[in-house]
What we know:
The complex is a heterodimer.
Chain A: E1 18-22, E2 25-29, E3 33-38, E4 42-47, E5 50-59, H1 66-75, E6 80-84, H2 88-91, E7 98-105, E8 110-118, E9 123-130, H3 140-144, E10 157-159, E11 162-164, E12 172-178, E13 181-187, E14 191-198, H4 201-207, H5 212-218, E15 228-232, E16 235-239, H6 246-255, E17 260-268, E18 273-281, H7 285-293, E19 296-297
Antiparallel strand pairs in A: 1-2, 3-4, 4-5, 5-9, 6-7, 7-8, 8-9, 10-11, 11-19, 12-13, 13-14, 14-18, 15-16, 16-17, 17-18
Chain B: H1 15-20, E1 22-25, E2 30-33, E3 39-44, H2 49-58, E4 67-71, H3 74-82, H4 89-100, H5 104-120, E5 124-127
Antiparallel strand pairs in B: 1-5, 2-3, 3-4
Helix pairs in contact in B: 3-4, 4-5
Amino acid sequence: xxxxxxxxxxxxxxxxxxxxxxxxxxxxxxxxxxxxxxxxxxxxxxxxxxxxxxxxxxxxxxxxxxxxxxxxxxxxxxxxxxxxxxxxxxxxxxxxxxxxxxxxxxxxxxxxxxxxxxxxxxxxxxxxxxxxxxxxxxxxxxxxxxxxxxxxxxxxxxxxxxxxxxxxxxxxxxxxxxxxxxxxxxxxxxxxxxxxxxxxxxxxxxxxxxxxxxxxxxxxxxxxxxxxxxxxxxxxxxxxxxxxxxxxxxxxxxxxxxxxxxxxxxxxxxxxxxxxxxxxxxxxxxxxxxxxxxxxxxx
Amino acid sequence: xxxxxxxxxxxxxxxxxxxxxxxxxxxxxxxxxxxxxxxxxxxxxxxxxxxxxxxxxxxxxxxxxxxxxxxxxxxxxxxxxxxxxxxxxxxxxxxxxxxxxxxxxxxxxxxxxxxxxxxxxxxxxxxxxx
Lengths: 299, 130
């Protein structure tokens, strides 16, 4: 949102539609839209297996120039880009941003796009909407719900079918979305949180003899002997000692590995998914608990 | 100079075109239903022409074509069963996603990978639709 208090004028953002959050951006998806492909600072969305929107975002250092960015877009791609005035259906939703709309034409597709620049957080976002017989009004809900630096207690990542809220102090370091297995790694040099999601859970568990702990042993559970293991809701949790002998600490420092602290795995039978979270490094019980609580499956 | 560089086939299917194709099973493939409900496929091994010629000259006089077997897992069997010669790739993805409750994008990647793997072995082909 443009304003520091999330103020975007008279129009309230829509509350319907699946939330999408990635690379610091958040907005709601119109019905039928799904996550397509994702990169660390970009991605595309699709509907019925066809692309509907592409986005790219970055924090701008120094002065921001729309003209320069559109020129770069035209030079770096086979697109023909033409600056245009902001379409009327979008105008009311973007009062908090500096904007520049444009039309683009690619080898096989055409569309309309917009570059948004938020002077508060200095984030520039390029969005390209594909014209697939839809009017520009169809894209208005995306812009109406667009938020690039809202309150911290909002989903950090909401893509495909998973949603998680991680504190801003733990940035996304790595991610992998393979069919059947998703992995997200957040962290700094001091601590790291790894989240997994497996699907379909019934087939994965059958393959491991129906045992969730056996599944965990082969998927993310650290090999070091835990000090405790306990049943948690729908799953298991293992803990490791918060302090380790000096030679272990030295070994880990040389190997540049953080010591494991906790690993939790749970089976959501209602969604047919297995979720897991692991904390390595300086231990923070409350934060781990918060992350696990905010890690869920969305549909 | 690269004399032995592998020849690239021009063109290729776009994602949209592939999703509109109908996967068709090779009639030479025999399928065997196992006790656990999964399927074992027996298919003639595709060998290079020069190896086939070598085999014809020096191999067993009236030997059958060498066969290979492939045992599918639970999800592979489900996809194989969905390939009835009528359903399009996109429809198979939708049904797979509904039956296994996986995300449609994940289902697409999994089914595409499976079809590619079977296609490489010559067990299925993709029939374009109008």
